[in-house]
Amino acid sequence: MAKPIAIEVYNPNGKYRVVSTKSMPGTRWINLLIEQDCRVEICTQKKTILSVEDIIALIGDKCDGVIGQLTEDWGETLFAALSRAGGKAFSNMAVGYNNVDVNAANKHGVAVGNTPGVLTETTAELAASLSLAAARRIVESDQFMRAGLYDGWLPHLFVGNLLKGQTVGVIGAGRIGSAYARMMIIYFSQFLFVVIIACFVIAAYGEFLKANGEQPVTWKRAASMDEVLREADLISLHPILDKTTYHLINKESLATMKKEAILINCSRGPVVDEVALVEHLKQNPMFRVGLDVFEDEPYMKPGLADMKNAVVVPHIASASKWTREGMATLAALNVLGNIKGYPVWGDPNRVEPFFNENAPPPAASPSIVNAKALGLPVSKL
Ligand SMILES: NC(=O)c1ccc[n+]([C@@H]2O[C@H](COP(=O)([O-])OP(=O)(O)OC[C@H]3O[C@@H](n4cnc5c(N)ncnc54)[C@H](O)[C@@H]3O)[C@@H](O)[C@H]2O)c1
Ligand SMILES: O=C(O)[C@H](O)CO
């Protein structure tokens, strides 16, 4: 018999049973589900990462849909269990879905949702914050102050890198990478390497700078990743994690980078070979990193925590109140839309209509990554 698992229940008589494996910020997502006749069950078990067995126990014998987290292993076992319980919808409360085996979901006819757009700027802002923190050694300086070591101004004290006029490289210039590039254009970058970016933003800003007697910002699409690695002073990683990006940054790519470069990772930990990174940080004390994600989360590879040239934060890039509430809303609406037989929203890059608190959300699932494979209809709204 499955072990009992602690839950909190809203609208116990609701027709559809929707399970959330975690409590999520805000109440709008719960209210939207309740208004549409859902019984909402939220797991309150005091355990950060739920196991497959825990989630099977939560799914039980009858479950219409599950909202899950990026820390969970959504593969064959869980999709089979959800399908046996009559469920046809799952949504990650995250844009990245490398924890989900989409082929297994397809096999069981389960729609897989994610939460794009609402976290784009929030995540890019953290990447920009880490860029500044790493460049100006903010965390080291803070620790020094708190340790009572400051005994007066010195010419060499915590000297870091000036970013103005430097070359910024973005690897994975999708929604978040492009937003980061836009943020970094203003002021810092003399040169920007990006794969896709609205060049008119740069051109218009260039005109503004020229009118003020300053050097315009320029950009180019790099011919290869090697070119970005060789020429950039600051590189921010924003690709998805899949087999093409696993250890994209490894011993060789680190060796290609400038000795005093800064590397930022707000994508997924395994995009960087963390063992090679620790070694590189040891050998190159002027090389700096800002990391929001780690190869074996929640752990860091041995030695990383001791490196003064690393700024490390616990996967908080999307952690603003508005964003996290929006992610919860999108995840709930992905599941609800499927339960209600709504079509899929046509453009997952334009999800703002789902965040208007003063109007009901569109009758659509905001973002279903396997909509095509499952032949789900697309909304004309
Ligand atoms: N740290 C966090 O809290 C946090 C928050 C949000 C997103 N993320 C991560 O960021 C990722 C990107 O999110 P997004 O909304 O910008 O997605 P997106 O799909 O808009 O962008 C991903 C980009 O990666 C590029 N890409 C794919 N394969 C590549 C490769 N081999 N080399 C270089 N680029 C490649 C794609 O062309 C695309 O431009 C997510 O998948 C997620 O893993 C992390
Ligand atoms: O993929 C995501 O959405 C993040 O890692 C959490 O916001």
UniProtKB/TrEMBL annotation:
Family, as annotated: Belongs to the D-isomer specific 2-hydroxyacid dehydrogenase family.
Major localisation: other
Functional pathway: Photosynthesis; photorespiration; 3-phospho-D-glycerate from glycine: step 3/4
Residue ranges constituting the D-isomer specific 2-hydroxyacid dehydrogenase catalytic domain according to the UniProt record: 35-342
One term under GO cellular component: peroxisome
Domain of life assignment: Eukaryota
Membrane-spanning ranges: 185-206
Name the record gives this protein: glycerate dehydrogenase
A single GO BP: oxidative photosynthetic carbon pathway
Catalysed reaction, written as an equation: (R)-glycerate + NAD(+) = 3-hydroxypyruvate + NADH + H(+)
Any one GO molecular-function label of the UniProt entry: hydroxypyruvate reductase (NADH) activity
Keywords of this entry: Glycolate pathway, Membrane, NAD, Oxidoreductase, Peroxisome, Photorespiration, Transmembrane, Transmembrane helix
Domain (D-isomer specific 2-hydroxyacid dehydrogenase NAD-binding): residue spans on this chain: 130-317
Lineage, top ranks: Eukaryota, Viridiplantae, Streptophyta, Embryophyta, Tracheophyta
EC number: 1.1.1.29
Species annotation: Salix brachista
CDD domains in alphabetical order: GDH
